[in-house]
Amino acid sequence: MKTETQSKTRKSYLTGKKLSLNFSLYIAKRYLFSKSGNNAINIITIIATIGVIVGSLALFLVLSVFSGLKSFGVNFLNPTDPDIRITANKGKSFFFTDSLQQVLNETEGVIAYSKIIEERALFSYNQKEQIAYVKGVDHNYTKVVQIDSLISSGNWVDFNTNSSFIGAGIADKLSLGVLNYGESLHISVPKANKKYTINIKNMFNRVHTQAVGTFSISEELDNKYTFISLHLCQELLSYKNNQISAIDIKSNTADTASIIKNLKNKLGTDFKVLSQEELNAAFYKILNTEKLVAYLIFTLVLIIAIFNVIGSIIMMILDKKSNLKTLYNLGANIKEIKRIFVLQGFLLSLFGLFVGITIGVLAIVLQNNFQLFMITQDIPYPIELKLPNVLIVCTTIITLGYFAAKIASSSISKSLVD
How far apart are CA 51 and CA 64, in angstroms? Predict the structure, then answer.
């Protein structure tokens, strides 16, 4: 009997609470969308709404631009950086053993892999010199990264000859022409553990190559790399046939994290297994830091704009003072009256958020389809529509709007409605 009575009491309480919330919401909507007799209050409310719209729009567009810049940067990294790279934990090189090959062949999600060697070297051509990186690759390299799709002139490395595929920046500095058989490109590296001698030539290993093609990706990469065959690079560095400096892997991108985890477990502590993001940690760190700073700056601007919401609600409270007295006399308590203006502020912020996001989405669609803003004559300003950005803006605006409404409604007291 007692349990049944408690159940009825609880049900009655919940019903009353729901009716109270519906009552507060109904009044809040009336106050928000009805025109006040005081024109100044109408103007303040419009200004507050515009402030939320502009703030939401600005924050959403800034976050979307950073998402676009991240994807834009990744497009430049993809042609030269693999999904996964394996390097030695100690030293610059390691041996590609049968057990290592078995691990790669048996790891699910590994689509292709390539053995590589990378080392700083001196490039000489027709009495001109340039320091850059030589990269020895095997036949599988183009299955891992699409570097051969970025050929600006000539062809990819011919593994049957001493050919080289050179960055356009290096080629320009050396005044090197593709397939110019009159002069070879000389690549030199210091001999390991070689003591100083009078004859400097004896201190260096050197190979002669023929430039068969050039690539153009970005200024940094064009001035950094020259590709040759793995065998030729091993000869240059006096490496053994199975000695390499890294293994680049093309993986199933949906399972990259789990593939890295499996490889780390199988290979142990002798090897480092790095994702593309870890290979470019500095780039991602700078971009994420800039995005965070931009978010904080625009959130500060939003906080300033939200003060207009506080002012609008306080002015509305003073304007509706006589109505509040009537509500109080009809049985509404102070908590319910405060809830009216909390909901009003929340609805105002929600309306501004909806309009701001809608305009932002439309702007992104227009930019991506019609390229209204350009970085250069050929490159449109990158911007992307991402769900996380929408959620971040919604959370920020709703939270700030709620606290602003709470602050404004705290001015309501019993003395105000007596």
Answer: 20
Q: Which residues pair with 275 in a beta bridge?
A: 84
Q: What is each CA distance from 41 to 30, 50, 297, 381, in whole angstroms?
A: 15, 14, 29, 40
Q: Where are the domains of the chain?
A: 28-75+284-412, 85-278
The Cα-based distances of 400 to 95, 283, 300, 349 in angstroms read 58, 32, 11, 8
Distance CA 299, CA 133 (A): 44
Is the CB of residue 157 less than 8 Å from the CB of residue 165? yes
The residues pairing with 95 across neighbouring beta strands, listed in sequence order, are: 243
Structure tokens at 164: 């080289």
The 10s digit of each residue's pLDDT in 313-368 is: 988 888 888 888 888 888 888 888 899 999 999 899 999 999 999 999 999 999 99
Q: What is the dihedral angle through the alpha carbons of 163, 168, 174, 175, rounded to the nearest 10 degrees?
A: 100
CB-based contacts of 373: which residues, under 8 Å, 6+ apart?
A: 367, 380, 381
